[in-house]
Design brief:
The protein has 192 residues and is of the alpha+beta class. The chain contains four helices and ten strands. The strands form two sheets. It has a five-stranded antiparallel beta sheet with strand order 3-2-1-4-5, with no helix packed on it. The chain has a five-stranded antiparallel beta sheet with strand order 8-7-6-9-10.
């Protein structure tokens, strides 16, 4: 009786595993790679935070937990489009140019926006997309800055251009999405 029950449970488990494998086949490899990278990054950040905490307070397990504010406001996740965050609710949220520039946000990065009870917007980059660095020439046309890389032009933020004191005609290094040929924005990395 017990052997029969174990055999039935084993067959059920094998069916569940086959079904899970079939469902996983529908998930693109790119998404799986992205999830693995996010998990690795989270583990690295957690290890660094633990190390910092131990260096500050020692290896004492009686460290008091930090009280969390219950009213942190509304939290929205979205995708950076080069200038704004397109929220999961479909709305556009303005991202401060100095934050986008300083953080070197790339079109497609995942952001989290916390709107505090007092109306303050607090952005955090939670999912940087794979990016590549390329060199191009800075151009200024119709009141906007672009970087020409080969035959393609990418918009860049004015805040980045002024921070690096770059001028039209300068060679600059920019970050662009690694796998998105349709990207229109780049993050200025440095003036060369």
């Amino acid at each position: 009786m017990v052997v029969l029950k174990l055999s039935v449970e084993k067959q059920t488990l094998l069916c569940d595993i086959r079904e899970t494998k079939q469902n996983m086949a529908d998930v693109p490899d790119k998404q799986i790679k992205r999830l693995r990278a996010l998990i690795q990054e989270a583990e690295t950040n957690l290890a660094a935070a633990t190390e910092l905490l131990v260096s500050l307070v020692g290896d004492d397990e009686k460290v008091a937990p930090i009280a969390q504010d219950e009213n942190i406001g509304k939290v929205i996740e979205g995708v950076f489009d080069g200038q704004n965050m397109v929220g999961s609710d479909g709305k556009m949220y303005p991202v401060p140019a100095n934050y986008a520039s300083k953080s070197k946000l790339v079109q497609g990065d995942i952001l989290k926006l916390t709107i505090a009870d007092d109306g303050t917007f607090l952005y955090k980059q939670i999912g940087p997309i794979p990016r590549k660095q390329v060199v191009g020439t800075l151009k200024f046309e119709n009141g906007h800055y672009f970087v020409e890389v080969g035959t393609k032009e990418y918009h860049v933020l004015l805040a980045s251009v002024t921070y690096f004191k770059a001028k039209p005609g300068d060679q600059v290094s920019v970050n662009i999405p690694e796998d998105d040929e349709s990207a229109e924005w780049a993050a200025l990395e440095a003036a060369l």
